[in-house]
Design goal:
Elements: E1 9-12, E2 21-28, E3 31-34, E4 39-44, E5 55-60, E6 63-64, E7 68-72, E8 77-79, E9 81-85, E10 91-95
Antiparallel strand pairs: 1-2, 1-7, 2-3, 3-6, 4-5, 7-8, 9-10
């Protein structure tokens, strides 16, 4: 079970976008792509067959998963996540600071 999942709101802990929040778009191993975070300029070649002109586009690049932490809405800050098993055998994620369960 992953501690951070697609659709979670996360806070960047280090780098040029430190402190910014965004929604997780994808996770690929230890790399994570966050919406509007870690943008880079890409020079795109023209493709006349698809009617794509030459242009410079902003591309969202992946971050290492250790550089982000999940956002705790109750505490209004970044928080660590743990995994515990409930009495009925279901495994859930919870915030380490206050023990609040993320997935019900």
């Amino acid at each position: 079970m992953n501690k951070i999942r697609k659709g979670d709101t996360v806070v960047v802990l280090s780098g040029k976008d430190k402190g910014r929040q965004g929604t997780v778009l994808s996770i690929d191993g230890d790399k994570i792509t966050v919406e509007n975070i870690n943008k880079a300029k890409k020079h795109q070649k023209p493709n006349p067959q698809r009617n794509i002109p030459a242009q410079i586009v902003d591309k969202v690049m992946p971050l290492h998963i250790s550089k982000v932490a999940i956002y705790n809405v109750g505490a209004k800050k970044a928080d660590r996540v743990g995994i515990k098993q409930l009495n009925d055998g279901k495994r859930v994620r919870f915030f380490k600071s206050n023990g609040e369960v993320i997935d019900a």
